[in-house]
From TrEMBL, chain A:
InterPro entries: Amidohydro-rel (IPR006680), Metal-dep_hydrolase_composite (IPR011059), Metal_Hydrolase (IPR032466), Metallo-dep_Hydrolase (IPR051781). It comes from the Bacteria. Keywords: Signal. Residues 1-22 form the signal peptide. Coiled coil: none annotated. This is Amidohydrolase family protein. The lineage of its organism: Bacteria, Pseudomonadati, Pseudomonadota, Alphaproteobacteria, Caulobacterales. Residues 136-155 are annotated as: Disordered. SUPFAM superfamilies: Composite domain of metallo-dependent hydrolases (SSF51338), Metallo-dependent hydrolases (SSF51556). PANTHER family: ALPHA-D-RIBOSE 1-METHYLPHOSPHONATE 5-TRIPHOSPHATE DIPHOSPHATASE (PTHR43135:SF3). It holds the Pfam family Amidohydro_1. Residues 346-407 form the Amidohydrolase-related domain.
From TrEMBL, chain B:
It comes from the Bacteria. InterPro entries: Amidohydro-rel (IPR006680), Metal-dep_hydrolase_composite (IPR011059), Metal_Hydrolase (IPR032466), Metallo-dep_Hydrolase (IPR051781). It comes from Brevundimonas guildfordensis. Residues 32-57 are annotated as: Disordered. This is Amidohydrolase.
Length: 447, 498
């Protein structure tokens, strides 16, 4: 028994770090939630890492088969506003590459350079069915809306830090498998608005909006006069060249701007700003979004939100409700649902958050969309992942039951067609101590 | 408080037991807390009259509960799947509530007394009211603004003299949202900036204008102690002790030496009545209450090795640790905790936010629960999580089953009911659906281990405190009146059911 345990541990440890090979595979017999539809007794065929067909036919001959009878098959979930691969231990500054705190670089901050494929957060998130993430720079308004364990001793408000400028940097899309996890860097720019944005600008919302418009004006002037800028034949500009370069696609309306904003009136102001400046925005947070859901829908602006925010944690979310996701969805807003606590260590909670949105009025199908298809669409990856359809990445999770239920667990997780080990640091700890840690040999020998 | 004042470290456990007994005794005679000295306090024949407030023993309940309970009627909840909290699962069960107490719990053949209102709960689930033993509702309320941030008296590593109840803002909207999640009882603690954070208080989760109106009658006080990173970070960053783990332990020991000395002086003076009475010291008085077993130690302690040290500190000074909170590594010393009879309160999902939380695993509750004599508890420490402790428990149960452990729902529900009640010393009063206990009951729309389950009705002492279908029983706090969104339904749901 002892030797068997040791061997199993050794195999598991190996599997945790060794890259697996893409395999052609068919997943058969399960109820398939494609992201947009439901197929009973479905067959998902993956070749060369991509989905080639989703239907009800038999598996092609010769293909390896994953038997999903009695199970539920979903696309891998897509974590938004995530810190995956960008942080190991929240309080250990050296292990956190999500926030640019102390220098003058703002918009140009590109967190993709700091993402670690060997981060121990990734296998843990996979166990929650997460296979892709939009890793997003942190700022003073980031997070699920609460702190715990007295991390905020002074009660000075959320976040506890400010970005050095109006922009927190650029987000990247990753996959949660393999040694090359970066799917695409610089997919969106991030800017805090509301209380956090006002704090950066000097304390008042009115300062931030004026500064923001002025900054965009400078970026456009720079873009038109790069030659003059290089000759130093141009008026002084407030941002560095790197920041202005990073902002050109935002000013052009090509790169979406993730705007963290919660108060209904702030949302209205941001929608107006986007209209006036011709920029593309994604609302992040939107705790009071349900109050202006029709306006958000009319502006065709998507929202990424934390669906269990229902307390007036501060003065910009006094109208927070559990029904926010349901109300926005009903109004026609494209929504994506977040995990907890910055969706790094607790990215796996995304399925529970989706379940809670359902129990508060969001249709089940819309909740599945909000953690699969919608985040892919919002960030410009429609059809590439987050959906089981021909041509999409072979990111598939087989669940023992309803994926939104805590009592369900994944039995298989594939990323780009590669079956991932269902192993993680937390399970290694579990197995080391599952017999109480009081054997003849210290637990350290039980690896 | 009615706790007997036996002295000496070796009697601490016995004192706890007597305390629990007196709790249930006073429950049968009404909730009014005693404000008169007990016989032992006035046993000396000598005249030891002191000015009001100078002798803490003559009035151990200076901020007495005025909790009266909500209007209630006798009832029988019939037809539900009943998880009693004490390990039983009864299909088609009957829960009889008489005069705010559980009168009977049994199968479909359980007789319903004449005159009892019948509540049809067929197809639904019934559990005891959820108990959260680690909450900062009211002391770190919503909104979390500077003027309301009253949870940490972070001015000295030892603030055993402060009482969380003096910081509670009863208008915290979080009490209402927690109730909508089935929470009927909460232990409100000071924060963990200090080695000794102060006294915690147990409250009935009813809307009230005053803190006293929520106070759980005769529940024992807790003393919040904290291990680890928080105290050493807070004071170390001020170039002050403690700056390290060893500084933390020196701080506990120094304080208990002073407390032993203080307690001996008072004991001696009470016995002999000679000389000058000691000067009352609120800090030492609370620590002396720990030494005599009347105040239960609620010890924030993440790491297994630190728990083992704290158990030895407790032995060195002859007190008992009732519960380790945030016991992220409890699973590493589960047999030790069970042998010592210490409860461990845990999260399921939180890990990795700081070094001492690095080894947090979802299986913690299941593994800690496994040894004979264990006391595993799931707690929140958070105004959002407290609304979904059933889900946090479901995730813990699921992780245990993933590990191949055979754990039933009727057992796992004890982690947020009966074990939680034990962990704050109120298990004779509540925590399970057993005859004689307070009728703290939740009727769930579905299996509470399902993500889709909602608390349909929540009863506290038999009084309807929340009804998901009836806005008349969906309290909204003063703070929320006239605020943005006030009175407006979201997705067709009234504000009070948010």
């Amino acid at each position: 028994m002892r030797i068997k345990t040791l061997l199993a541990g050794a195999v598991a440890a190996f599997a945790l770090t060794s890259p697996a090979l893409a395999q052609d595979v068919a997943i058969t017999g399960g109820q398939v939630l494609t992201g947009t539809s439901v197929i009973e007794n479905g067959t998902v065929v993956i070749r060369n890492g991509k989905v080639v067909s989703v239907g009800t036919g038999a598996a092609p001959a010769g293909l390896r088969v994953i038997d999903a009878r009695g199970k539920i098959v979903t696309p891998g979930f897509v974590a938004v506003d995530s810190g995956l691969a960008g942080t190991e231990v929240g309080s250990v500054r050296g292990s956190n590459d999500l926030a640019n705190r102390a220098n003058t670089l703002t918009a140009a901050f590109d967190l993709s350079y700091g993402l670690d494929p060997w981060s121990f957060t990734l296998p843990v998130a996979r166990l929650g069915g997460v296979t892709r993430a939009v890793v997003t720079p942190q700022h003073g308004g980031s997070g699920g809306g609460h702190s715990h364990d007295d991390s905020d001793f002074a009660g000075a408000g959320q976040g506890g830090f400010q970005t050095p400028g109006l922009f927190a940097g650029q987000a990247a899309v990753i996959k949660l498998g393999g040694s090359d996890i970066l799917v695409k860097p610089r997919v969106a720019m991030v800017a805090p608005f509301g209380e956090a944005g006002a704090a950066v600008a000097g304390g008042a919302r009115g300062a931030e909006f004026v500064l923001f418009k002025e900054t965009l004006g400078e970026v456009r002037a720079y873009a038109r006069n790069k030659a003059a800028y290089e000759r130093a034949d141009m008026r002084a500009l407030s941002l560095s060249r790197a920041d202005m370069e990073a902002l050109i696609p935002v000013a052009d309306g090509r790169m979406p701007l993730i705007v963290t904003v919660n108060r209904a009136s702030d949302i209205q102001q941001v929608l107006r700003l986007a209209r006036e400046e011709g920029i593309k925005v994604i609302l992040d947070g939107a705790a009071e979004g349900w109050l202006v859901a029709d306006e958000i829908a009319a502006a065709k602006v998507p929202v990424i939100l934390h669906p269990t925010t229902n307390l007036p944690s501060n003065f910009e979310m006094r109208a927070a409700r559990m029904q926010n996701a349901a109300a926005l969805n009903a109004a026609g807003v494209v929504i994506a649902l977040k995990g907890n606590e910055g969706a790094a260590h607790r990215a796996r909670d995304i399925r529970y958050n989706a379940g809670n949105a359902v129990s508060h009025g969001l249709p089940f199908a819309a909740a599945i969309q909000a953690i699969t298809v919608n985040p892919a669409r919002i960030f410009g990856f429609d059809g590439q992942f987050g959906e089981l359809k021909a041509g999409a990445a072979g990111d598939v999770v087989v669940w023992s039951g309803d994926p939104l239920e805590p009592l369900s667990q994944p039995s298989a997780v594939l990323i780009d067609g590669v079956e991932q080990p269902l192993q993680a640091r937390n399970l290694l700890l579990r197995d080391r101590y599952r017999t109480g840690g009081e054997g003849a040999m210290p637990p350290a020998y039980g690896n | 408080m009615l706790f007997s004042r036996l002295r000496g470290p070796s009697l601490a456990v016995l004192t706890c037991a007597l305390g629990a007994l007196s709790l249930s005794a006073c429950a049968t005679t009404g909730d009014a807390a005693s404000q008169t000295p007990t016989a032992s306090a006035s046993s000396s024949s000598k005249d030891r009259t002191m000015a009001a407030g100078l002798d803490g023993w003559t009035n151990q309940d200076p901020y007495p509960s005025t909790y009266r309970g909500l209007p209630r009627q006798n009832m029988a909840i019939v037809g539900a799947t009943v998880l009693t909290g004490a390990g039983q699962k009864i299909e088609g069960g009957v829960v009889v509530v008489t005069d705010g107490r559980i009168a009977a719990v049994g199968g479909a053949d359980t007789p319903v007394p004449a005159g009892h209102q019948v509540v049809d709960a067929r197809g639904r689930f019934v559990t005891p009211g959820i108990i959260d033993i680690h909450s900062h509702l009211g002391v770190y309320p919503s909104p979390g603004v500077q003027g309301m941030s009253d949870g940490n008296e972070a001015t000295n590593p030892n603030t055993a003299q402060v009482w969380a109840e003096h910081s509670i803002w009863p208008q915290d909207p979080g009490f209402n949202t927690a109730r909508a999640g089935g929470v009927t009882t909460a232990h409100i603690l000071p924060g963990s900036a200090n080695l000794f954070g102060g006294r915690g208080v147990t409250v009935r989760n009813v809307p009230s204008v005053t803190m006293q109106g929520m106070k759980f009658p005769n529940a024992p006080y807790g003393l919040k102690m904290a291990c680890g990173e928080n105290p050493s970070r807070v004071y170390g960053s001020r170039n002050q002790s403690p700056a390290t783990g060893m500084g933390n332990v020196a701080g506990y020991r120094t304080a208990f030496i002073a407390a032993q000395d203080y307690k001996e002086k008072w004991d001696k003076w009470r016995e002999t009545g000679q000389g000058t009475p000691p000067t009352r010291n609120l800090q030492l008085e609370t620590l002396a209450g720990v030494l005599d077993g009347s105040i239960l130690v609620q010890n924030h302690c993440y790491r297994a090795d630190e728990m083992a040290v704290m158990l030895d500190v407790a032995k060195e000074f002859g007190y008992k640790i009732t519960t380790f909170h945030h016991a992220v590594e409890a699973y590493k010393v589960a047999p030790l905790l069970a042998r010592e009879g210490v409860c461990a309160a845990m999260w399921t999902g939180w890990w990795g936010f700081k070094m001492e939380a690095l080894d947090g695993i979802e299986e913690n509750a299941a593994l800690t629960d496994a040894p004979e004599g264990s006391c595993a508890v799931i707690h929140s420490d958070d105004a959002e999580l407290i609304q979904r402790l059933n889900q946090e428990t479901a995730a813990a149960l699921s992780a245990g089953r993933r590990a191949g452990m055979d754990i039933s729902e009727e057992h796992a529900i004890s982690w947020i009911t009966l074990n939680a009640a034990k962990a704050i010393g109120i298990d004779k009063e509540t925590g399970s659906l057993e005859s004689g206990k307070r009728a703290d009951v939740v009727i769930w729309s579905a299996d509470p281990f399902s993500i889709y389950a909602r608390a349909d009705q929540v009863f506290i002492d038999g009084g309807l405190a929340y009804d998901r279908a009836n806005p008349a029983f969906q309290p909204v706090s003063d703070f929320e009146l006239g605020q943005p969104g006030f009175g407006v339904s979201a997705a067709g749901v009234a504000q009070g059911a948010r």
